[in-house]
Design goal:
Elements lengths: L1 H22 L8 H12 L4 H18 L3 H9 L4 H12 L3 H28 L7 H5 L5 H18 L7 H23 L3 H28 L7
Helix pairs in contact: 2-5, 3-4, 3-6, 3-9, 4-9, 5-6, 5-10, 6-9, 8-9, 8-10, 9-10
């Protein structure tokens, strides 16, 4: 009986070591300074970042307009919307007011630019069809929240690695952000307040979840608070 208990204890210890080695977030982690600089670098929206956002919003709006998943995914691949939201989570988690205010400032700038771009597009386009893709962004569901949560987790974990791979997390986050924001522009262009408010609510909810997950991961990794 005693031998059996020892064997079970050793097996459990082996399983614990195995799981720790496989799921340890500290493995391959970049330095705290590198991670903070990486997030801060992408927060500011001006120059190339701003033009890329405009083009991505245009492509996403066309995809919504013609009901094309492939076109929307193409827009997500070039979307730079991830960084300001991660910057908000970073600023709150390490008590960095300067980063927080800068991230919020450029986040609102990106929202305004995106809304102007999508509104102008939907106002000028002869294709005013209320497609299934547009309709899907006017009724927030639990699954939309899950996309934002897991996309946010993938994004912030990727940023904290030495070997960064931001394309897939960026797409996951853009999935939760870009289409609802474009649909808000559709609602404004068509003077439909219900569509505009519902889609913007989805955008805001997803943004909150992404910022929250970045905050939780940074606190889990025990980044030092700024004095």
């Amino acid at each position: 009986m005693a031998e059996s208990n020892i064997s079970i204890g050793r097996l459990w210890q082996y399983i614990r070591i195995f799981l720790k080695e496989r799921f340890d977030l500290n493995e391959g982690e970049a330095s705290e300074k590198q991670t903070i600089e990486e997030i801060k670098k992408g927060v500011i929206f001006k120059g190339a970042n701003l033009w890329i956002l405009i083009f991505a919003i245009m492509v996403a709006s066309v995809g919504l307009n013609i009901n094309s998943t492939a076109v929307i995914i193409g827009a997500m691949l070039i979307s730079p919307l991830m960084s300001p939201i991660l910057g908000v989570g970073l600023g709150v988690s390490i008590n960095d007011r300067e980063t927080l205010f800068q991230a919020l400032k450029h986040f609102f700038i990106s929202i305004i630019i995106a809304l102007i771009t999508s509104t102008v597009y939907f106002w000028l386009t002869p294709l005013g069809t209320f497609t299934d893709m547009i309709e899907a962004r006017t009724a927030p569901t639990f699954l939309d929240g899950l996309v934002a949560i897991f996309g946010g987790l993938a994004g912030i974990i990727s940023i904290t690695r030495k070997d960064k791979s931001n394309a897939i997390p960026g797409v996951a986050i853009a999935t939760a952000l870009m289409p609802p924001l474009c649909v808000t522009g559709y609602g404004i262009a068509n003077q439909n307040l219900e569509i505009a408010l519902n889609s913007f609510y989805l955008f805001f909810l997803n943004s909150f979840f992404i910022a929250l997950t970045s905050y939780l991961i940074i606190r889990f990794l025990q980044f030092p608070h700024k004095e």
